[in-house]
Amino acid sequence: MRAKTEFEKTIKLTKTALFLSGINIFLGEWNHWTRTFVDSIAYYLNIVGLYFVLIGEMYWLIDGTITGKSFVELSLIVPCLTISVLATAKVHYLYHNKESLLDVVDKLREIYPDEIEETANDNDQLGIVNEANELLKFVNFLLSTVSFVVTMTFCTMPLFGMAGEFMETGKFVVLYPFAVKYPFDVYNTSFWVIVYVNQFWATIIVCTNIFGVDTLFYALCSYIGMNFRLLSYKFEHLEIKRNDRIINEIIVLIKRHQELIELVNKTQSLYSLSTLFNIVTSSLLICLSGFNIT
């Protein structure tokens, strides 16, 4: 027996990540203030927090170029800048196409198998559904673990560096996850906590945006593929008889096929720019990583 709650349970982490990014795909009613905050404020608050760091990185990069910093030093900051821009680009298009996104998610909710009887004839269908759910759970677990480890490591390494420096020399030296430069002195002890918290928040935003958008893409592909496989199974096991019941079943299956094709087209439209950004940024990061390694 498989209820639609399995659909919600499987993409729970994805929904939470997108919720923090300012995109609400949760099923159910929210009170007015929560809905207003998520739909109209959270996204822009995240943009402000993240771009405060990005502007500081760009300023540092420009200043480093002018003052003659080595290419190796400059290239080390570019991956952070690139991934931060990528995270913004990924969530930006989904946020501004929320209606199309909600149409796709709601349609997949609607056509998700409400229940499959565990009989000899339906074991294959049950296996198809279970395979899609288990694969998606594994992807979510893997990416959530990686995102958590990356976030905590990236944000705490400077703290350990500061602690080590203090224990070794007795001097308090401020270090940050991101190399930034602002019109004010970021290494002034009266400012460093605020700047550090902002950078911690920015790192969470970046990881949340990438995790939410990417795992949603995996979920859409997984469930669309699952429904195509179920559709294929039903076509293959139709009775070869000419009667009204069989004809009606064929009509229902044809309509389901048309619905799935439409979902594929909408998903492609939602993620075409995100995929392009992935390819471009991956190429850039691979080149920079190869240069730094050699």
Give structural notes.
- This protein has helices at residues 5-10, 12-21, 32-66, 71-95, 98-111, 123-169, 192-236, 244-293.
- By secondary structure, the protein is mainly α.
- It has one domain (5-293).
- It is elongated, with a radius of gyration of 24 Å.
- Its main location: membrane.
- Keywords: Cell membrane, Membrane, Olfaction, Receptor, Sensory transduction, Transducer, Transmembrane, Transmembrane helix.
What value does the Rg take, in angstroms?
A: 24 Å
How many DSSP-defined strands?
Answer: 0
Q: How far do the termini sit from each other?
A: 55 Å
Largest sheet, in brief, is: none
The proportion of residues forming helix, as a percent range, comes to: over 70%
What is the mean pLDDT? 86
> Outline, from the CA principal axes?
elongated
Q: What's the order of the H and E elements? A: HHHHHHHH
What structural class is derived from the secondary structure elements? mainly alpha
DSSP strand content: under 5%
The parts where pLDDT drops under 50 for at least 5 residues are: none
Overall number of domains? 1
SS summary, helix count = 8
